[in-house]
Design a protein that fits this description.
The strands form two sheets. This protein has a seven-stranded mixed sheet. A three-stranded mixed sheet has the order 5-10-9. By secondary structure, the chain is α/β, with parallel strands linked by helices. The chain contains 23 helices and ten strands.
């Protein structure tokens, strides 16, 4: 019984002591919290007051802002709003000063930017120093005037808006990556415009070059009218062939053209510069449409006694589609679509491809040069001349050249890596790659001296047919007569001295006049032909001085006006 009571008393005493201890600990904790809180507040107040007296700027200002924010919760609800405005103002002012300093460092031409940013910073400082806003910076005890605060906020926002706009516009001057990207975009846009302009220019130039001038069309029509009016005067039908046309001892020339005035200039210039014009024979071949005009043109004057034969390509009966690959290819529907159903928007996509889409590259007149031995079976040598050349010297010296068994005498055009076989033939094709050297030097058509006996011996026409048949799908070369010529006379071409044949007067304005004066033949290859308005004025007189302006038909068509 005694044991039981004693145990019960012991348990109750322990509980009372535990409870008293917990109350004591809680009271002590609360007292400490209150003490540290008031200690922090008074310590902060003392620190900021002393710091303000000393005159600290940046760090003290931040602590001051924190202190005000804490006290504002107890004193004035407008204080936090004022502090936010003040911080925004200070941030923008500092940013403006940084941009002004960076602009000076970069030595930008835009000194205006330096001035603008400096003025922005000064405006913020001036705004904060105005008398009406001084009350906002007074002691914390005084309440903030809401109307004054609103006015300050309004002006600060306006300045912030202007500052951000100026910084946004000027950012490009400071951001190198942005400037580089903008420059790249500009270069890309300009290149696009340049490419488009080049294609349009090439297409316009091609139209100008291939169109028939009104004066040239007029001349052909008037000459044809004369031919119809007096057929007996100009026709050679029924007359025996003059022996000079087949005499191998004379100097023979081949001219294939449908341009009446151009062909007459070639003959005119050659005969006027020949020492013995009577020993020169010119074989002019045209199409049936221009035959009458050509016949009249070459019978209107004597040409210093030179012999001139005018024929149509149709007069050579062996030139038919069963024998000539070009004529057979022209009959294919696929090739006709390629040339004659070509649309403008497709033509201008590729200026180079557009050039070769001209049907003249499949004209039989262009390919007659590969049939010279068959057209003139009794001749041993012949000089081929394009219709856009002018002869400036006597050419009989060509017949004295030792051809060393070669077929084609021509002036080479390669220099450096330019005008090599690789530029004319498709060396990705195995046949071309296996047969030819891509670095082989190319030569020029326009004035070519052919040894017809060597031609027959080398069977060059058969070689031409072989390759032309393989190129029906244009996989070996694009088009034109130079690529098949380079193939046909590969290793059978004798280089001639460059003074015999100077090229480029139809596209290269930088050819020296000394080089032109020393040339036996000058060639207006290119789009700027001398009979066109787009001809280069410095070279055109070389051609016009051989035009027969005294002929009434030429005068009637206003040539040269």
């Amino acid at each position: 019984m005694v044991y039981s009571r004693t145990a019960h008393f012991g348990t109750g005493g322990n509980k009372s002591i535990g409870f008293s201890f917990r109350v004591l600990v809680s009271a002590t904790f609360i007292a400490l919290c209150i003490f540290f809180t008031f200690s922090f507040l008074f310590t902060s107040h003392s620190y900021f007051t002393d710091h303000h007296v000393i005159g600290s700027d940046s760090g003290a200002h931040e602590f001051e802002s924190i202190r005000r924010s804490m006290l504002a919760l107890k004193t004035d609800p407008l204080k936090p709003r004022f502090n936010r405005i003040l911080k925004q103002t200070e941030d923008l002012r500092s940013l403006a000063l940084v941009y002004a300093s960076y602009a000076r460092k970069l030595k930008l031409e835009s000194s205006k930017l330096v001035r603008v940013f400096t003025e922005l910073s000064m405006n913020f400082s001036e705004l904060m120093s105005r008398p009406q806003y001084r009350t906002l910076f007074s002691s914390d005890a005084s309440p903030v005037n809401e109307s004054v605060l609103r006015q300050l906020e309004k002006e600060v926002k306006e300045r912030i808006k202007v500052s951000r706009q100026v910084i946004g516009e000027a950012k490009e001057s400071f951001d190198n990556q942005l400037k580089i990207q903008k420059l790249k975009d500009t270069i890309f846009a300009v290149n696009e415009q340049l490419t488009k302009a080049k294609k349009q220019g090439a297409f316009s130039s091609l139209i100008a070059a291939k169109s028939i001038p009104k004066s040239l069309h007029c001349l052909a029509m008037r000459l044809m009218e004369e031919r119809i009016a007096h057929p007996e005067k100009y026709s050679d039908e029924g007359k025996p062939t003059p022996p000079e046309f087949e005499d191998p001892n004379l100097h023979h020339y081949a001219i294939f053209s449908d341009n009446v005035i151009a062909a007459s200039v070639v003959v005119n210039s050659a005969t006027k510069n020949a020492k013995e014009p009577r020993k020169h024979v010119f074989h002019v071949v045209t199409d049936k449409l221009n035959l009458g005009a050509m016949q009249v043109m070459f019978k209107l004057k004597d040409y210093n006694g030179a012999h001139i034969e005018v024929k149509a390509v149709e007069d050579y009966k062996f030139l038919n589609s069963s024998y000539v690959p070009v004529l057979r290819q022209l009959e294919s529907a696929k090739l006709q679509r390629f040339y004659f159903e070509n649309k403008l928007e497709n033509a201008t996509k590729d200026a180079t491809n557009m050039k070769f889409r001209n049907p003249k590259y499949l004209s039989i007149l262009n390919h007659l040069r590969f049939y010279l031995p068959e057209m003139y079976p009794k001749l041993h040598r012949i000089l081929f001349l394009d219709d856009d050349i002018v002869v400036q010297k006597d050419l009989t010296g060509l017949w004295k050249i030792d051809m060393d068994g070669k077929v084609n005498g021509a002036v080479e055009t390669c220099f450096g890596s330019f005008h090599r076989y690789a530029q004319y033939l498709n060396f990705s094709h195995p046949l071309i790659k296996a047969k030819f050297n891509p670095k082989a030097c190319a030569w020029a058509y326009g004035m070519n001296f052919f040894d017809l006996d060597a031609w027959r011996r080398e069977k060059c026409t058969e070689e031409y047919h072989y390759w032309q048949n393989l190129n029906e799908n244009r996989t070996l070369w694009k088009l034109g007569t130079l690529p098949p010529g380079l193939i046909t006379y590969y290793s059978t071409t004798k280089p001639l001295d460059k003074s015999w044949h100077v090229l480029g007067l139809g596209y290269n304005p930088s050819i020296s006049m000394n080089e032109i004066r020393n040339a036996a033949v000058v060639h207006f290859n290119g789009n700027m032909k001398p009979w066109l308005d787009i001809a280069m004025s410095q070279f055109k007189p070389l051609w016009t001085k051989f035009v027969d302006y005294e002929l009434e038909f030429v005068q009637a068509c206003n040539f040269g006006i």
